[in-house]
Design brief:
single chain, 313 residues, alpha/beta, Rossmann fold, seven-stranded parallel β-sheet, two-stranded parallel sheet, 11 helices, 40% helix, globular
């Protein structure tokens, strides 16, 4: 099978390219910089914000995995739209014109907007996104559903929850660093859905083997709810530390979250919501439709996330 992977040098792309190659698939890896994969294989440099991939690259491709995009960066709103929406739609049309059998678009649960419930959300539980990242992903989703409803090319839109794995980035990396530096034990409450990187990649490979007809949109999570306190406790255990002490009062956490918002230029209690809010998603639809089952557990993988992979402060 011949697969094209955009965003090949990213957190998910690296793992996907490795697994596809191990299966014996032919992989065409694209990245903005043209950097090499950890295996030493160079990627094709294509900046999707300004350039369309050469049509020759798509010739004979069976599956396109579109993972590239602007994530949680302080970029202008038009940059999110240009890369996450417009470039995604253009690549999908190029894939269809080249005769690809399946186009997999990696969206995000952020495309569903803020939650208005504490119960796990399903695919239809959507609200208008409040940030340029979520809005751009939602626009791309809507356009793909509309423009490829009658296409011979299968289109799969995946909305992963927070993805964790070896050498994490973002909030998980920040929390791990905080634990190393003596962060007090967080208060109880809240919970969010997550998914192991290896489980997500297994699903991507499964979709390559069995592309579902039509346009399908699925949430991807491990089906569990993980609180900040739970993750904190697991990180401490993986670092060989004893149970942390919750010496910081509740108002201190509120103040810290507010300060993080001010530093990041975002008003409101966004940091508090990320740490202690409820953001849970159901994986029932994708499990029922594909037979995929998440098999990794956070407690089994947390050591790989921190031991020997983070430089001491």
């Amino acid at each position: 099978m011949k697969c094209l992977v955009s965003g090949a040098t990213g957190f998910i792309g690296r793992q996907l390219c490795q697994q596809l190659a191990a299966r014996g698939d032919t992989v065409i890896p694209l990245s903005r910089s043209g950097a090499s994969l950890p295996t030493g294989i160079p990627t094709r440099a294509v900046d999707l914000a300004d350039t369309d991939p050469d049509a020759q690259l798509l010739r004979g491709v069976d599956v396109v995995f579109h993972l590239a995009g602007i994530a949680h960066q302080h970029a202008p709103a038009e940059a999110y739209s240009k890369v996450n929406f417009q470039a995604s739609l253009k690549l999908a049309h190029l894939a269809a014109e080249a005769g690809a059998g399946c186009f997999v678009f990696l969206s995000s649960v952020k495309a569903m907007g803020p939650s208005s419930t504490t119960r796990p959300r399903s695919e239809g539980d959507c609200n208008p996104p409040e940030d340029p990242y979520g809005s751009s992903k939602w626009q791309a989703e809507c356009a793909l559903r509309e423009q490829f409803a009658d296409s011979n090319m299968a289109v799969v839109i995946l909305r992963p929850a927070l993805v964790y794995g070896e050498s994490p980035k973002g909030n998980l990396l920040s929390l791990a660093r905080g634990v190393r530096r003596g962060l007090p034990r967080p208060p109880a409450g809240g919970g969010r859905s997550m998914v192991a990187l290896a489980d997500l990649v297994d699903l991507l490979c499964l979709l390559a083997d069995n592309p579902p007809p039509g346009v399908n949109t699925w949430i991807v999570s491990d089906g569990a709810s993980h609180s900040t306190r739970e993750i904190y406790d697991l990180l401490r255990a993986a670092m060989g530390k004893g149970r942390g002490t919750g010496w910081l009062p509740h108002w201190g956490w509120r103040l810290g979250a507010w300060l993080l918002d001010q530093t990041g230029g975002v008003a409101g209690d966004r940091a508090w919501d990320k740490l202690f809010g409820a953001e849970c998603y159901s994986n029932d639809a994708v499990v029922a439709a594909t037979g995929w089952r998440p098999v990794r557990r956070l407690e089994d993988l947390v050591a790989d996330m921190v031991i020997g992979r983070e430089k001491p402060a």
